[in-house]
Amino acid sequence: MGDFVLTTVNLEHNHDLIPTNSRHFAINKKILSPVKRRLEINDQAGIGVSRNYNSMVVEAGGYESLTFDERDTRNYIERPRKLRLGEGDSDALQKYFLRMHAQNSSFYYMIDVDTDFRIRNLFWADAMSRATYEEFGDVFSFDMTYLTNKYDMPFAPFVGVNHHGQSILLGCGLLSSEDTDTFHIMKKIPEKLKGYSQYESMKMDLQNAVYDTFTKDKFEMKWKEMIAKFNLYEN
What is the span of the domain harbouring residue 193? Predict the structure, then answer.
């Protein structure tokens, strides 16, 4: 293949520049934090990427008013759905978990992957945490406010309280996003209740208790009503 030699440069444009098209340049593309939050909320509500993006277009008053396009929207929404691990981190993580389990068989861990076998979520609990949970696991908090870590992922500690009123760590997780798929909120329903003849009614009442109550007292009331309605005291 021969060499090319540049002999002439013409710096005059043969068409007018359109200032609004500058939004397509990579250096000008950005999604502001409030918009990111709106996109995430819509995505969690089951709104597809196209409809999600179009709603932003309508709200902004047209395509030219946005500093991102539909592909940027898709990339942003799909990015949090897997852990943003660096090269070699996945192998190092798995080796660490295996080493901890070899040292103590009570060390428990779970790695959740997507269809392409990319890590989405992690959970682990050491022997001490598991033993402590047996004694003080009746009530615990699941705090999602720890967002400042190396991979910009929600860190989720499970924290309980012992008989001295001290906080105790019962387990830890790293999550790729904060949606119902990540938390697996209702995943155990079929496993626990499928054998009952009134399963569908039970499922509906339980979903109402979990998703349609916004205070502790209201949830407790709905929960007790469901237990009594279906005689689930022994379950």
Answer: 189-229
